[in-house]
Write a structure and sequence with these properties.
The protein is an alpha+beta fold and 281 residues long. It contains 8 helices and 15 strands. Residues 82-88 and 117-171 have low confidence and may be disordered.
Length: 281
């Protein structure tokens, strides 16, 4: 595509040619070529421009700057501080310790009142204190699935029992989006952004460099379509915007994704760990 050097060259190609090559809808391509910035959200605009830059090897920085002048907004994805995401405040840890000591003392008093004496070498452990401050246990008996998520300051441990094969179910929604539930291995196509329906922990890894970052957010995550990524979300209630339309994923449990060569695909935990070289996060 060496003949394409500027945005004007893309305009000369026309709507039909760009549609056949990128699969962005003709209506959205026409808005982009006509610079109808007021009719394109930032997520859509930046996603479409990234696709054009990748497919035609053209630099459209000046077009992005022109959009920013007309539609200035605050940055969506701030820098990440690991302790902000996962580490519990020190005062909270102290409360856990004090509360644990108090609970043990109360159990000893109750035992002495009901039994009359305490054994100097109890056969069973009365109470176990779990160091990680957060523990989320979810079960799904209909699918014979039990997932336990334990989050501490350095890692997320995910343990899942053997499950039956998951089947994708697509449900039409009233707003012309697509609702997808119980999904595994679904190809979402040319995704531009991922919008959580509520605050969620998300981890991102650049597949080329191995660089990771993580945070809790309820804002849309705009995908840099010039790179390949791995994503992990604490829950799967997500709204996925693609160049072909929008899809809404409704998963209560942890979900994993890969974004490679412009295509977003949901993964199983085993597929995610394989791409992550055996690491869960």
């Amino acid at each position: 595509m060496s003949s394409i050097q500027t945005f004007e060259d893309l305009q000369n190609l026309g709507v039909d040619s760009l549609y056949e090559h990128t699969h962005i809808t003709r209506y959205q391509i026409e808005l982009l070529l006509n610079k109808s910035f007021d009719k394109l959200s930032r997520v859509q605009f930046m996603g479409f421009v990234s696709i054009l830059e990748r497919e035609y090897s053209v630099d459209l920085s000046s077009l992005k700057e022109e959009y920013d002048v007309q539609n200035p907004i605050l940055p969506i994805f701030d820098s990440v501080t690991p302790s902000e995401v996962l580490q519990a405040p020190s005062t909270s840890r102290s409360k856990w310790i004090v509360g644990g000591i108090g609970a043990i003392a109360l159990l000893l008093v109750i035992a002495s009142m009901t039994q009359g004496e305490l054994s100097s070498a109890p056969k069973e452990e009365v109470l176990k204190l779990n160091t990680p401050p957060f523990e989320i246990v979810k079960s799904n008996t209909s699918a014979e699935k039990n997932i336990t998520v334990e989050i501490n300051a350095t890692e997320i441990n995910l343990s899942e029992s053997n499950t039956t094969s998951s089947v994708a179910t697509v449900i039409p929604a009233e707003d012309n989006t697509t609702i997808v539930s119980d999904v595994q291995g679904v190809d979402f196509g040319h995704a531009l952004s991922i919008q959580p329906s509520s605050k969620v922990w998300v981890g991102m890894m650049d597949l080329a460099t191995g660089e990771k970052n993580q945070r809790k957010t309820s804002k849309p995550i705009v995908i840099d379509t010039t790179k390949n990524w791995l994503f992990i979300f604490g829950h799967g209630r997500l709204h996925i915007v693609t160049s072909e339309g929008s899809r809404t994923l409704k998963e209560r449990n942890v979900v994993w994704f890969s974004y490679e060569n412009g295509v977003l695909k949901q993964l199983s935990r085993e597929q995610f760990e394989e791409k992550n070289h055996g690491s869960r996060w």
